[in-house]
Specification:
Elements (H helix, E strand, L loop, with lengths): L1 H20 L11 E2 L21 E11 L2 E11 H8 L8 E14 L6 E4 L5 E3 L2 H8 L19 E6 L2 E7 L4
Parallel strand pairs: 5-8
Antiparallel strand pairs: 1-6, 2-3, 2-7, 3-4, 5-6, 7-8
Amino acid sequence: MRRRALAALVMVAASMLLAACGDDEQKVSPYDKVPVPAVPDRTMPVPDASAALADGQYWATANGVDGEAVQFEITQAFFGPTCEDELGADACDGEMGVQYLPSRDISVVLVRVDPLTVVNEQRENFAVPAEEFVRLVAGEAPSADAPEGFAYQPYPFLVTVLAGNVTGVQQIWMP
């Protein structure tokens, strides 16, 4: 009898815990401040154009917009001691260096890309919706949701790939 009561109590507690964790999706509003993304010691090497992108993070520059898609050039970047080990001290400005070849152009429609962030000159990171991101990269003015004085900067991005799809695009402030 005690075992059944204990089992019932455990099931009720587990159900309550699952209900508390359930459908409460965090909503991020345009230009909510977000944490600075963690930068790895290196981004993924760039495969040739015939190969799929492996899971991981790539260094990218946004080069323009084609309709709803943002055009990125991906390269490989190295940080901290790994930069000097891979590229040599002369190639690592501020403990960061980019291996520009090979590179690859990719086109990304930002539907279901999360996180999607931009950064201002003051090193503040902001979440933006896809439509706003596309407008900013296209050179248009930010929406009324932007903080006063916000101006898009052409800093590079960490582009996250999972199962062949871009799942995150986070801008990185660079001096």
